[in-house]
Amino acid sequence: MSVTGRFVRVGSADGGGADGVPLHVVVEGRGPVCVLSAGLAMAWFDWDPVVAPLVAAGRTVVRFDRPGHGLSGPATEPPTTAGEAHRIAGLLDALDLGVRAAGPVTVVGHSIAGFHAEAFARLYPERTAALVLVDGSVEESPRTVLPAAVRTAAARALGRAVTAVGLPAALGPAARRATVRASRTGGSDPAPRDLVRRCYRTGRVCRGTLLENSRYLDMAAELSALRGTHPLTAPTTVLAGHDGSAGRSALRWLSRQADLADLLGARFEVAEPAGHLVMLDRPGQVARTVLATAGQEVVRPDQSRA
User: Fold this and answer.
1) Are 124 and 130 in contact (CB under 8 A)?
2) What is the mean pLDDT of the chain?
3) Residue 167's CB: how many other CB atoms inside 10 A?
4) The pLDDT value given to residue 304
5) What angle (nearest 5°) sits at the alpha carbon of residue 123, between those of residues 155 and 62?
6) Is the CB of residue 291 less than 8 Å from the CB of residue 298?
7) What pLDDT, on a 0 to 100 scale, did the predictor assign at position 296?
8) Confidence of residue 186 (pLDDT cuts 50, 70, 90)
9) Is the whole model's pTM more than 0.70, yes or no?
10) Which residues are CB-contacts of 230 (< 8 A; sequence separation ≥ 6)?
11) What is the secondary structure of the chain as a DSSP string?
């Protein structure tokens, strides 16, 4: 069963001031730090199957909800790639893990959070031990059509509208469960139902998801520019999910993930069979990949299913 954690206020996402958004964070274990950040509309408990083997292998595991996700406070501003990297750094500073951990951290980003994790590794190379991208988002030539302000305003308006008519309360948990089923190669949503209701019945999560999604291409373009100015020095692995099929879209996704690994000078690994939610379909492999990338070799097979 998933645990809930505590709330921490950190500096604003752009690195200055205080944005006043309380972040929900769960810290478990002892040893070198591993930070886990989930994808769009996901929550801290989606990492549950990966945490136990990492803690057993001597890791301090930090997982948190971005603003407007999980149990964190509402998103007040649209995110930026660098801003989310600064948020991770600010969170680590605020936690003051002390004797529980020493040295740089391994940062793990799933889906859109791969943008944030990679940006952290580039902006804070001295604080990064390793980088793992779990079926991370890929945009080879990100271009936006509408101005960012227009997309943000539309996302805010839509979020207010669907909240006002009660759609999150009526359909939020069911939509979450359907999305998880569609994003796995098999199995239902393992998240505790009480926590799913607590998070996904709220307009807060709906609005936060829409706001973050409205800036997806902007964050991709920002990361592309960052790659030209800030080298990636940490050992990196791109872990791609593949359902085992020979379908055109599945193979195209693998090709794009492999190209991303080449671009980053990273190790490329495939989790199979797995859908986009690799941490639910192949949690043992995710844990082993994290440990291997950071130079710590082994999770015994009995500690987590493959």
Assistant:
1) no
2) 92
3) 14
4) 43
5) 75
6) yes
7) 56
8) confident
9) yes
10) 122, 123, 125
11) -----EEEEEE-TTSSSEEEEEEEEEEE-SSSEEEEE--TT--GGGGHHHHHHHHHTT-EEEEE--TTSTTSPPP-S---HHHHHHHHHHHHHHH--GGG--S-EEEEEETTHHHHHHHHHHH-GGGEEEEEEES----SS---SS-HHHHHHHHHHHHHHHHHTTHHHHHHHHHHHHHHHHTSSS----S-HHHHHHHHTSHHHHHHHHHHHHTHHHHHHHHHHHHTTS---S-EEEEEE--S---HHHHHHHHHHHHHHHHHT-EEEEESS--S-HHHHSHHHHHHHHHHHTT-----GGGS--
* Distance from C-alpha of 120 to C-alpha of 131, rounded to nearest angstrom: 9
CA distance to 20, 76, 186, 210, per residue, from 67 (Å): 10, 8, 30, 12
Q: What is the pLDDT of residues 44-86, one digit of tens each?
A: 999 999 999 999 999 999 999 999 999 999 999 999 999 999 9
Residue type for position 72? S
Lowest mean pLDDT among 3-7, 199-203, 242-246, 249-253: 3-7
Look up residue 302 and give its two tokens. 């009995």
CB 54 within 8 A of CB 287: yes
Structure-token pair, residue 42: 């996901």
Residues 115 and 175: beta-carbon distance below 8 Å: no
